């Protein structure tokens, strides 16, 4: 399992660009690799044992059904046995990466009794038990500040919830900051200047206003201990050979635009982020299972993204990560919207410009949501623009053709982002492009999640999404394991486990080998396969082992498990401009459910 180290040169990029247009035969037979600065991390943890037993049961750490998707989002859980079961299931289907959903920093009012209120003005039950010396945590903080100087005050109060149990690295000024154990929960009190400077001198003798951040942390377990959820996840990562991406705090949102971070509160978010990452740096900096950190504030990729204050959040948190967790990247997962009938739908070029703006904030991994699950982008080929959209998309775009509904296909967007990424790499800017394929449908009966209408999809559709991501990306991940992969009967997980060995072709190009014309196919599970080529007036079946060759060790910039097959093929027999459908069939009878559509231009 690999991270990106070696980047492809211009020859392979040119091949990638020609996903739907087959290139003329004057391309080099081998891509040229070039050296750049390495990606932030390099090694994946190796499973410690093939099997282990703990109070939750016995767990197998092997892979039995390695699928093309190698990373998944999971939701927090209070049951440690659920974590173990999920990571075992994820690793079983080839997962080596787990990304955790997180929580948001929230600005909150306080009543005259010093009790923290909800946004609706009610007393918040989660924080009512935070008390010191008979005072609320808010009033106790005011008391301690005024002891240092009567002119000190708490100007703003924020809350943040988590199931983590932080170490002393969370605190900077011991006289003002500490844990508060109340009942079954531990709270953390942080006091810092409002400008985000987080003064390290801890001089409270000069009167000034302060931000109070009350963190509601872990709850005691059955043994009366405060267990840190991230420590437990990292331990499981070591057991299963999985990298964990814990979530950073989300920024408070603008009241009139919930898709944008509120600049007024970014300094406080900076303080909280710095404290959490300082604590991680003390406790986890050397852990191979800590893959990086995930910033869950989603933005739409579009032409005006560079003006979105959320990018200040990404840039500021990147700087802190570099200081406190060197070598660990920030992962973000923005979304696409290709719909033509909404004013905010964006073209592939506009999304590519947004990719550049995001990369310039310093984030190390951009994993755009393919947005097929939400129906905001379709999966289709250029010669299918006049086809009716998948009926599962109709709740979002109505009865329409793909060309009428969307500016482009998922494939168009990943292709344009890959081109921008290559430009950035040439300029010395290191960033990885991952594909986040959405493992759900816009609606389902019953829905899979506790909230919303999203329903179960099937492996055929997920294979199609992987096909459309092509070889433009370095890794394929999926939102998400919790709910969507385990929903329904049969579940998507069980479909993948049963059908994981089916070939998936992601790209086909015209490529000569020595003096022989041919076709190069990249994809998954190609070994032992036959490349099938079909056009309006003809068809060919070409056994890779008999007439071609197979490379099972892909270049470093390609996703884990991708293979390259080449077979001889005389393109002169295909009329210029004709669309050709390319697939792969195995001796078992399994064949690609989504064939590639390519075209000869000359």
Automatic annotation (TrEMBL):
Domain DUF4434, residue spans: 223-490
InterPro entries: DUF4434
Sequence segments annotated as region (Disordered): 28-50
Membrane-crossing segments per the record: none
Organism: Nonomuraea rhodomycinica
Species classification: Bacteria, Bacillati, Actinomycetota, Actinomycetes, Streptosporangiales
Compositionally biased spans, kind Low complexity: 36-47
The protein, known as: DUF4434 domain-containing protein
